[in-house]
Give the backbone structure.
Amino acid sequence: MSKTKTSRLDKILANTGFGTRKEIKKLCKQELVLVNGQTVKDPSTHVNPYQDEIFVGNEKVFYSEWIYLLMNKPAGVISATEDHQHETVIDIIDEKYKSFDLFPVGRLDKDTEGFLLLTNDGKLAHQLLSPKKHVTKTYYAEIDGVVTEADIEAFSKGVTLEDGYQTLPGKLVILTSGMLSEIELTITEGKFHQVKRMFEAVGKKVTYLRRISMGPLELDPSLDLGEYRGLTQEEVTLLQQANHSE
């Protein structure tokens, strides 16, 4: 929304978590909604959420057109806006965000945990996912098999997946090496099941996978699985700048 554009009062209040349009109509009837100090009984009244001062009861309304949520995605939940069989990341967020038409930026497999950005900012999402931007994604993984220096070398050149696709170079760091190895892998692509398929290409199997960062942002360690929080303005700016660094 342009900062000079007006919108219906009930839409603005619905988008800022004050209930459904029916509930907001009731709030207006009860004379609990004030715009610039004046009671507004008609919820269809057009106001400017950036320039007009809006109160619901004693609570001031702060409007934002764009929403950015950082989620620590749990396993068993799919990265989609809707699904008839499985619970989605949209299903587990608070009802107050449902009217914003949020969507996940990229996808994590159903059994993969970790960093997932939810937003309604299509422009930023497109730039973060654009192959031309080479925005990095780093994963922590547990691997069935001994990960070696040879694997580091192979990943640094890019590996050939089972369908013949040659991946871009990835940076593999071995944390522990043994029958069960722990690694971190940084890639700039997001092909379907890419991390798992890259390890399959060198004869090994991923048994656990968690995304720990995307571009300049790391997964917030204070977030338990299934929890999320809004990004700070500084974090949003960092993401936006990451798009222009290539």
